[in-house]
Structure formats: structure tokens, C-alpha cells
């Protein structure tokens, strides 16, 4: 069976890098754990790094986090479904909200459970995913603070996830100004502006984070060391926190193009082949992972010279080239993975999950150590 490995020491390194950056800029941050799909083995690694705040968009995952670490503050980071109000109050200490009718149900449940449920009001800032329209924000806030057992602890916004709209200093300044206006008109205090996710991190290095933006929600950059804003990598962070390993179950020399009439494959595609490849052969391998578990376009081989040819539901086809590693049937091949590859593999019951705690050299230095490529 194929398996995905979480390299715990590399993840710890990435965590320390980010923790230093946020501490130097007086910004609190919470880990977004939805990539781990509630896997207890991997969540324990994460909670050993930080058990203060964990965010997720799946209620079942928050239940698992609460089971493993009851003291950890759990944050539900999408507008809750009304039918989930009882469980949201039970398992999420904080939830992100945009609908008054849902907040009324959360209030009722908080009263029943004798809890104060904390909420972040999400504001529409141009991305057109979840968010309260600015023209309605003041009235919305007034309605919410009148609800029993509901405490507004922050304003937030989401950018880049649907339409790719990037954060900038002007948008974040506006968000902070909305908070100030609400506080001036209501006499209440809103402690946090959760205005940052992984895509906002590069603005820290450009000194473009306005005063008042004091909370970030970080997933991708922690796990992949990516500069999401510019679709590049961050020097000084590990990009290979996760690897996929699959076993060779067949290895034979075969023609480079198929023969016979060509129809559509299982994904509805009709592959096209060049006549220049007729009569040519290559050493091909099949490994035990397929489209049920990953999209082969989201992974790449770590061994130079090996090319991914394609995939079916349960098998991945490789061209081994010169087979520089002298691979044989029964050997394994490692693959690097992007965010969507990890997410899909974590959702697959057919991919085992392993933790590796190998020692890797690293050093946490000053801001000069962490630079954007």
C-alpha cells in the first residue's frame, strides 16, 4: 500500500520560522489544520508544536482536536450550517459568521449549554466568497451584540481562495477602519482583526501590514514553505514536509505509444500521441497509487529522469528513463506533493499515514534568514 509521510522535524522548523516572524511583528496566529483531515497521528504532531489555537472547516476534525487536547481553542473557519448549531457550540470555541439567523441559533445553543460562544464577523472585501457587505456591517454588529451568550471577538476577511483577489495595504487598512468605526459607535471593543492567511505573509516583509491587523490563520505556508502571494518559495523553509511513497508492482520495457483504436479513458479524455514515437520503447513502471488517491498532475518524482506518464483509478504509470537508481519490482519511489495532492491523499483510506522524526539541520536566525525568492 502507498503511504504519505509527515516529516515532523521539518514541520517543526517551519513552525519556528513563522512563530519568530509573527512574534517580531506582534501578531498572533493560529494553525489551519484542515489539510490533515482529522488524522489523529498527524494532529498529535501539530498539537506538540502549538496547542493554543487550531482552525478547521470540518466539525468532525474539531471534535478530534478537542478529544486530543480539550484546552486548545478550536476555531470553525467557515459560516456554520444552521443544522450544526448545537455541535458548533459544543466543539468550536470560536466560529466565523455572516448570517444573523445562524447566530441566533448559536446564541440559543450557547444559553442551553451555559457557554459563551465567541464569533468573528467576516467582512466582504472583494473576494466574493463569505462576508458581510460593508454597508450592512454596523447594523449587523448591533444585532449580534444584543444576542445572549455571544461574544464578538474579531472582524475577519478571506482573500485569494476563490477569485484569487490578493490582500494589500489598502484593503487591510479599510478593515481596521471598519473596526474603529464600530468601536466608536458602539462603545464596545473588538480585540482582533483576523485579516491574514498564508497569502498575506509577504506583506509583513514589505512593511505593508497596517496597525491593528493582529491575527493570522496559517496553513499552506506552514506545511509547504510557500510564498502564496507570488506563487513562489520561501528560502529558509522546507517545502518537503510531506512525501508520497508508492511501490513498484510492475516494471517492463514497453512501446512508448499504445496500439489500436483510441476512445476516451476513464476520465473522459482522448490521449493524443505523436507518430514520431512509433517503434520506440521505454522502461515503464507501475506503482500502487492512482486517481482515487491523488491527481498525478499534483505530484512529481524526486528521482531525476523519471517521468509520470499517466494514471488510472488505482495505478500510476512511470517512464523510468535510464533507470539510474537500478530500481526493481518491490522497490519504492518517493514523490513530492503540492497542497491539493496532500489534501486528496489525506482523504483517501487507501493511503497509509506515517510520521517521520528524522533530524535535519536548521537554524532560526533574524529576518535576514527568511527571504522571499
UniProtKB/TrEMBL annotation:
Start and end residues of each Alanine racemase N-terminal domain: 9-225
Protein name in UniProt: Amino acid racemase
Cited CDD domains: PLPDE_III_AR_like_1 (cd06815)
GO cellular component: cytosol
Presence of keyword Oxidoreductase: no
InterPro entries found in the cross-reference section: Ala_racemase (IPR000821), Ala_racemase_N (IPR001608), PLP-binding_barrel (IPR029066)
GO MF term set: alanine racemase activity; pyridoxal phosphate binding
Keyword hit for Transport: no
Co-factor(s): pyridoxal 5'-phosphate
UniProtKB keywords: Isomerase, Pyridoxal phosphate
Pfam families: Ala_racemase_N
Amino acid at each position: 500500500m502507498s503511504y504519505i509521510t509527515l516529516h515532523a522535524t521539518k514541520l517543526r522548523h517551519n513552525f519556528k520560522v513563522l512563530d519568530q516572524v509573527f512574534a517580531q511583528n506582534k501578531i498572533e496566529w493560529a494553525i489551519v489544520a484542515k489539510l490533515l483531515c482529522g488524522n489523529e497521528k498527524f494532529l498529535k504532531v501539530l498539537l506538540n508544536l502549538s496547542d493554543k489555537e487550531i482552525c478547521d472547516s470540518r466539525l468532525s476534525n474539531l471534535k478530534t482536536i478537542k478529544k486530543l487536547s480539550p484546552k486548545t481553542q478550536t476555531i470553525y473557519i467557515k459560516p456554520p450550517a444552521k443544522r450544526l448549531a448545537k455541535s458548533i457550540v459544543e466543539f468550536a470555541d470560536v466560529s466565523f459568521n455572516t448570517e444573523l439567523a445562524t447566530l441566533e441559533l448559536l446564541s440559543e445553543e450557547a444559553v442551553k449549554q451555559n457557554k459563551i460562544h465567541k464569533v468573528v464577523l467576516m467582512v466582504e472585501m472583494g473576494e466574493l466568497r463569505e462576508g458581510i457587505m460593508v454597508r450592512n456591517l454596523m447594523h449587523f454588529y448591533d444585532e449580534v451584540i444584543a444576542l445572549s451568550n455571544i461574544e464578538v471577538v474579531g472582524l475577519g476577511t478571506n482573500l485569494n481562495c476563490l477569485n484569487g483577489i490578493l490582500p494589500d495595504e489598502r484593503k487591510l487598512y479599510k478593515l481596521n477602519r471598519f473596526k474603529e468605526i464600530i468601536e466608536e459607535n458602539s462603545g464596545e471593543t473588538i480585540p482582533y482583526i483576523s485579516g491574514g492567511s498564508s497569502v498575506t505573509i509577504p506583506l509583513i516583509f514589505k512593511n505593508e501590514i497596517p496597525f491593528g491587523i493582529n491575527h493570522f490563520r496559517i496553513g499552506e505556508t506552514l506545511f509547504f514553505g510557500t510564498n502564496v502571494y507570488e506563487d513562489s518559495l520561501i528560502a529558509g523553509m522546507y517545502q518537503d514536509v510531506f512525501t508520497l511513497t508508492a511501490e513498484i508492482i510492475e516494471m517492463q520495457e514497453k512501446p512508448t505509444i499504445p496500439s489500436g483504436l483510441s476512445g476516451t479513458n476513464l476520465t473522459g479524455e482522448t490521449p493524443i500521441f505523436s507518430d514520431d514515437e512509433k517503434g520506440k520503447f521505454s522502461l515503464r513502471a507501475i506503482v500502487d497509487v492512482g486517481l482515487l488517491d491523488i491527481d498525478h498532475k499534483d505530484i512529481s518524482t524526486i528521482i531525476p529522469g523519471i517521468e509520470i506518464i499517466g494514471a488510472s483509478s488505482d495505478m500510476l504509470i512511470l517512464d523510468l528513463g535510464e533507470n539510474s537508481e537500478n530500481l526493481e519490482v518491490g522497490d519504492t519511489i518517493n514523490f513530492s506533493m503540492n497542497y491539493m495532492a496532500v489534501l486528496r491523499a489525506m482523504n483517501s483510506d487507501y493511503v497509509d499515514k506515517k510520521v517521520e522524526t528524522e533530524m535535519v539541520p536548521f537554524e532560526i536566525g533574524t529576518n535576514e534568514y527568511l527571504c522571499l525568492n
